[in-house]
Each structure stands twice: as C-alpha cells, then as structure tokens.
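Open question from group meeting: does this chain pack into something compact, or does most of it stay loose? Before anyone orders reagents, we agreed to write out a predicted structure and look at it together. Recording both the input and the output here so the notebook holds the full record.
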Amino acid sequence: MSDHDLSLSELINVQLMAQGPMSLSTYMSIALTHPTLGYYKKADPLGQAGDFITAPEISQMFGEMIGIWIAQTWQQLGSPSQFSLVELGPGRGTLMADCIRVLQQVPGILDAASINLIETNPVLIEKQRANLAGQNVVWRSEIDQLAVESGPLLIIANEFFDALPIKQFQFSEGKWHERLVGLKGNDRQWGLSPTPLPQEAFPQDLNPEENAIWETNFIAQQVTKDIADLIGKRGGALLAIDYGYPESQTGETLQALKAHKPVDPLDEPGEADLTAHVDFGALTDVAEKAGMNVCSLMTQAQFLKAMGIEPRAHNFASASPEAAPKIVADLARLVEDGQMGTLFKAWCMHNAPTPPYPFEAK
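Structure tokens returned:
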C-alpha cells in the first residue's frame, strides 16, 4: 500500500508510530494544509453546506463596512496613486467583492489599487475568480510575495489568524509541559512531554492552576512580524477581525467544527475545521517590537457600528421591505452581544501618524 492509498488519519498515525508524539501545531498543520488531503486544500468549507459561516457570508453589509474603512484609510494616507489592497484567507471572494462595490463609488481608488489575495485552496481560488470577474486580481500563496508590490499596503484579515496552528502547554505539578498528540493502539490521544520548560518562557502574570492550559501561536506571531516589516518599509495598515481575547491568559480554546457542530479535534483530521481564539495581546507585543503603532482593541460591534452598519441596514430594509426581517436578523448576528458582536474583536496596526478611523491609539 502506498501513501496515496492512505487517509490523512492513517498517514498521521504512521508518522506517530515512526516518530513518536507530535506537537499540536504539527498536527494542525498536517490536518489543515497537507498538500492533497488537508482541510484547507481540497474543498469549500464555507456556508450552510460546509462547516462554518463567516461574517461576509451572513450579510453583504459586513464587507461594505470594510470597504468604507479601506476608502477612508486610503484617503487618510493621502490617496496614494499606487497601493496594495490585500486580503489574507479570502474565502469565496465575497468580502472583497462587497468591498469593491463600495470602492467603485470612490474616485481613483480602484485605479490605484493592486488587489492581492493570499490563498492556497484551489477550490476557493476558482470561486474567488468567479466572484471577482472583471477585476485585476493577483493570487499569491505567501505573504512575502507581496514584497514585489509598490506603494503602501492595506491588509484585511477576517477570521484568518484563528486558523493558524497553535501550541498548547499544560501546568502540571508546578511546571509547564508541552501538550502532545500521541498514539495508544490505533487511537490518537493527548499526552504531555516529560521534559518541563523553563518558567521564564511563559508570561509571568498567568498565575496558573494545576492542569491549566496555555495556548500560544508562534505562526500567527511570525505572520504579524512579517506584515509589520512590510508596512514599516512601505506604509499602510492591517485590519484583523477574529474571535479572541485582549491579553494572554490560560484556558483551552481549540475547537473542531464539522457540519456546523463541534467534534473531537483528534478524530477526523482533514475533515473538520480546526481553530483557536486569537491572543491579541501577544500579536500586539510582536507588532510594537517591530515598530508598529497598535490601536486599542475594539469589539466587532463597536467597529461595525462606527462604520455605519445600522443606518445601512435601515436603508437596506426600507428599500427591500420583503427582505427586512432577514436584514434585521443578519444585523443582530453581526453586532449583538450574544452572537458575534463582542466575541469577535477588531485589531489594527499601522505606521501612520494617526490611527485609521474608527480606531484610537492605545
């Protein structure tokens, strides 16, 4: 039997048998980005028929508010004649299409924009191509490929950082140990590295209880550093919207979703979406050390309301009375406390003299 005949679950088990327990970040990387069997490489995970729904798929109003933010930030930068409009993990292209509809009302901005989508999923690339037909779009697989572009960067990352692989550590008998994925029989199970890690490697204000879990995302931090370096050289801003928390803390947030329902993260690698909440405090530290200005964190509700989503919903509903109940429900899903309004945060780093509206300096 060749590797080509094995499922991703079987391939991971073979690796565990050959090499022993693996880091959670390694497990997530294989499950999500294996070249042919990885979750983000082979299918469209979005929508009712997929595993989860993102804000742009809920309502066009979300992308329209992002479009307004892009236009205002471009003008705040002095309306440069060339700039890169970038989206990380652009899904089906829905968000960018909704942004462009707004930007078409702003003289000069689309002529100045070089639209770049950072995407590796071939299925989604074809959907993006269809949704953005007629637009001059460049697809790239890596952030460092943006170095060939000219002018400042305006980068959008909606539900991007949460999907980057994390490491987990568990506090046991007064010491931190990395949490690993191992094999018992044919079953994958959690275990701990027998080698404790030095206390100084961890935030000193965690005050962990026995068996507390601490998560860190070195990949997200490296992506933040890479983007900060690009913005430092060329100017611009990054807007990230994701679920997360403002400061490093203990608590397990790893989750797996399949068909909109939680499943065991170790059960079906490649068949379920794996995500974890974003530690915005850690990203802020990285960005500031790289010379960026980081704005005060906002909730998604605060950001969308400041950009004008409520009057937009009112006008939208007035123009389409038959659709008004759905428009009201979609708005509530995006901004209400019990839904996405406070769980999701809006985070911005930039190198302009003043923060992009509606953000404020920390």
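Observations to bring back to the group:
Residues 76 and 256 are 40 Å apart (CA to CA).
Residues 60-76 form the longest helix (17 residues).
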